[in-house]
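Hi F.,

I've been meaning to write this up properly since the lab meeting, where we talked about keeping a consistent format for the predictions we share between groups. The idea is simple: the sequence comes first, exactly as it goes in, then the structure tokens exactly as they come out, then a line or two of notes. No screenshots and no reformatting. I'm using this chain as the first example so we have something concrete to point to.
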Amino acid sequence: MTATTSTSAAPATPAPLVDATRDDASLRRFLLGLPGVDQVGVEQRAAGLGTRSIKKDAKRWAIDTAISMVDLTTLEGADTQGKVRALAAKAVRPDPERQDTPRVAAVCVYPDLVATAVEALKGSGVHVASVATGFPAGRTSREIKLADTKIAVEAGAHEVDMVIDRGAFLEGRYMDVFEEIQAVKAACGDAHLKVILETGELATYDNVRRASWLALLAGGDFIKTSTGKVSPAATLPVTHIMLQAVHDWHVQTGELRGVKPAGGIRTTKDAIKYLVAVHEVAGEQWLTPDLFRFGASSLLNDLLLQRRTQVDGHYSGPDYVTVD
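Output, unedited:
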């Protein structure tokens, strides 16, 4: 992937942002004033970016970059401290036989397992992320959502992944969603906040654009596609819209915010398609774990297998990596 100028269109937002969140009417006017998404256009462009050919040297770089962007995740009711410690070990040394393999960006767990992850990853440089706010449905009171967040942060989480109230959003109660994101952001303290939109439940691309801007206006450090518990989860067209939002946010404010597609990204080929989209839609500046992540578990296994293929010149097979 060579450096090129971003091909993003002019900012797809009304200007200016001043007073957009002054009151409910201002916020509603701003969000409903966002230009509609051209469904055919965004799907065609996403499909076109997915056909880009990547040469061998660039592919090796892309694989290493994708590994460094993975939030290695376990969010199951049967999770144990032992499983989290094993995941942490894999996060630090994804391929123990290849010491030059990058470590992943973070390990993502439930709040009650944050302390275990923090201890296991101490000094490694791998962050600990925690889901919160009644993940995955978010169907609980704001008080409980904030308490959930504080439990994760006090246990040492560097990042918090919150879910928005999709019901409130779909009912048009945008200020309620905005204020809840703000409250969770405040509860995070120094921890970064990733705002999960659950795009599969938002029904339209226009809603994805509105929810992206709502989360950015409320202070989200990242906007994230999905919990991974709802289908469809991450898709290239939805991620395209979210990348455009953070690009346009940067144009208008000078601030850099990140994007995290999560759920359904399982192969190296898929991951590279997303990296091409990042490069072309947001810009080369976003090709860093600080601004782009993959929420995944099985993806890492395929990245490691394909990395071995690139290095060794032959396919090693799944027995050569740990399977989660």
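Notes:
Confidence is low (pLDDT under 50) at residues 1-10.
The CA atoms of residues 105 and 232 lie 24 Å apart.

If this format works for you, I'll send the rest the same way.

G.
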